Amino acid sequence: MPELPDLTIVAEELQARATGRLVKEASAPTPILVRATPTAVDVWSWDGATLITTRLQPGDHILVNEGVDAASDPLVPHFRPLLAAARSPDPRPGLPTSDAWGDWLGVLGGDGLPPTDPRALLVRVEFEGRVYGSTSASLVALGQTGVRYDFCPDPLGGTGWMEIPT
User: Fold this and answer.
1) Domains of the chain by residue range
2) Considering only CA atoms, which of 47, 41, 40 is closest in space to residue 14?
3) d(C-alpha 126, C-alpha 117), whole Å
4) Which of 56, 64, 120, 160 could form a disulfide with 41 if both were Cys (CB 3.0 to 4.6 A apart)?
5) Contact, 18 vs 53, CB < 8 A?
6) Which residues face 52 on adjacent strands?
């Protein structure tokens, strides 16, 4: 296995899969690990056999279980044009969340799709008698002058967005 750099986000499951210490059912979500700096964004994913490393080009991207910008996931073709049409955020620290993120809040809010729709960003689904759903959401921006991090503890309700000091 290649050495992984010191990562901002730790995904123990990714390392376990890459070293063969954990075997999951094929239906399990693909682990995705993201490391972002002001100058680069790298993505590592595991398809069950291969560790895939991708350096993202500048711009908006959607990461789903199938990978980066995977059009096979119905969410991607639905939300890609919405992201393209959204005004760029102004994530300067200290601005109210709605001013900092503007159109992105509406996009992250799900574009009016019900949480059971396969295109939904915010989900609530039943699987094998258990209910799974989006329990929080975050918006993070990295820039040369700093980091902006906003959090919502109730994304399906769409309320409670707050800036988290960094």
Assistant:
1) 1-72, 74-166
2) 47
3) 12
4) 56
5) no
6) 45
